[in-house]
Amino acid sequence: MTANELRQLFINFFIERGHKHIPSASLIPENDPSVLFTTAGMHPLVPYLLGERHPLGKRLVDCQKCLRTDDIDEVGNTTHLTFFEMLGNWSLGDYFKKESIGFSHEFLTKYLKIPQDKISVTCFAGDDDAPRDDEAADAWRELGYPDERIYFYPKKENWWGPAGQTGPCGPDTEIFYDTGAEKCGPDCQPSCSCGKYVEIWNNVFMQYSKDDKGKFTLLSQKNVDTGLGFERTLCVMNNVASVFDTELFVPIIKKIEELTGTKYAEPNVRAHRIIADHLRAATFVLGDDKGVSPSNTDQGYILRRLIRRAYRYLTQLGAPDRSMSVIARIVIENYKDIYPELERNQEFVIKQLDREEELFGRTLESGMKIATKELDFVQNGKLAAAKAFKLYDTYGFPLEFTQELAAERGITIDIDGFHRLYAEHQEKSRVGAQQKFKGGLADNSEETTKLHTAAHLLQAALRRVLGDSVFQKGSNITAERLRFDFSFDRRVEPDELAKVECIVNDAIALGIPVGCAEMSVQDAKAAGAIGIFDDKYGDNVKVYTIGDYSKEICGGPHAANTADLIRFKIKKEESIAAGVRRIKAVIGDAAK
Question: Which one of 1, 96, 196, 542 counts the least CB within 10 Å of its CB?
Fold first, then answer.
């Protein structure tokens, strides 16, 4: 089965069962500061999971681009990836556990022809927050799954969400494929990481909402959110050893072999896989219509980390200059028919990869000088953990690279100390991210909703003052402030910012009702609505209108009247990338 066949079979299966197909949303979340990237299909749909009406109804199906780096160190084994595609079906207050499980069973066993005895499932074991999920387990039993292939696990294994600190969440049932490998021991089961069991599908039953105090309450609208791992399922369907042996990666790895003069065989397997995975991920981030540039903060930092890690391995394997952009062209060629934005943004992708290679080449050279100096002055034949971690954190040297340099001089490294420092670094990053990216799409608080409306007024005002070339490039909204990124190739002058502020405050003073209508994309464009993200909504969209000021395609929600915003004030305007500016603004009492 080819990749395209699998995508289409899944989508058609659910369309035939009353689902509407929606396109993949951007990898860069819109108006969601709780996450840096879209890590699951549910992110763009959070407002609808919380009760907003989706223009296409209660049953949806999609193939969503996703990026996760929380287990980046696992990349190189048979199944882990940073970028991946997630096939998903959705019920927004329509069917629930029994129907969802029935759909999954039917698709896997009758359409993909996977023998039922190769499938094991897991369910939530229950705790003080929610009871044991016997409803899901009973649905599996009714389909003929014996108790010995139904397992119960706690939250760590069988609970999904919320995506940020608060929002919709619930128990899940996970579906595992038995590879046929020998059990690693008498206790081997789906929770084991030995490789015998591979998770391919996760059905999340979003029936709870978690608040900022950690309390779980039942949602009035029960939802189903499922995710079928596209690459893993393709691997199973073609009976290959790893996701890297599917058609998605074979052309990429062949190009790596050609560039480096090394074979995709031990001891180079892990290096080839890391290069292929990281550059595929980087190409999709850069090639997104809301693509970001490598930087030292937020999404740009993650992107830079992926690129530089790939570059280090390419360098170690002896690849020539500008190999990364050569590999990126292969990725674009592989995916351009499914994700045309990659070809549309190809020039930007290539330019950024070549630029980052040049920058990191200089950093690597500096790091080598520091590493040589540190190793030359080592006493007692052991490099201190803090020295090794500095080479990792400041110069991007992986531990194994520093170990190789040290071994050449007969020097060892305080490995345990390095791992302690690394763990401390991860914990600080995690806590910092939680503080920085609180809120999110699940935060439908009154203040956040008002700021969504302020963003519409701001874009309209910018276009009036600076011209129609201004378009939104991204936004980040919390209950405290609005951050709005837009296309513009020069500094916005103080008098221009004053005019923008004045236009927004005039609209607020007029107390204009915020209207909403559902229509086709074509009708929305004919009516003059703007919205560069309109492809994510599907054939029908919501159009929010604010008098003669603004008409935008948007998923919502919004304030009922502009007067609710009270007042608007711009706090800062700055450049964040070539041709992209950023405004930070506040409303209400904070704007007085």
Answer: 1
Q: What pLDDT, on the 0 to 100 scale, is given for residue 435?
A: 44
Digit-coded pLDDT (tens) for 366-375: 778 888 888 8
Distance separating alpha carbons of residues 380 and 391, to the nearest angstrom: 20
Helix (H) or strand (E) holding 562: none
Write down the pLDDT at residue 88: 94
pLDDT band, residue 427 (cuts 50/70/90): low
H/E run at residue 513: none
Say how far apart CA 444 and CA 567 lie, in whole Å.
Answer: 20
The DSSP line for 20-62 is EE-PPPPSS-SS-TT-SS--STTGGGHHHHTTPPPTT-SEEEE
Give the separation between CA 78 and CA 240, rounded to whole angstroms. 10
Q: Does the N-terminal peptide bond of residue 154 adopt cis geometry, omega within 30 degrees of 0?
A: no
Give me the residues paired with residue 224 across strands: 91, 205
Residue 33 is predicted with a pLDDT of 58
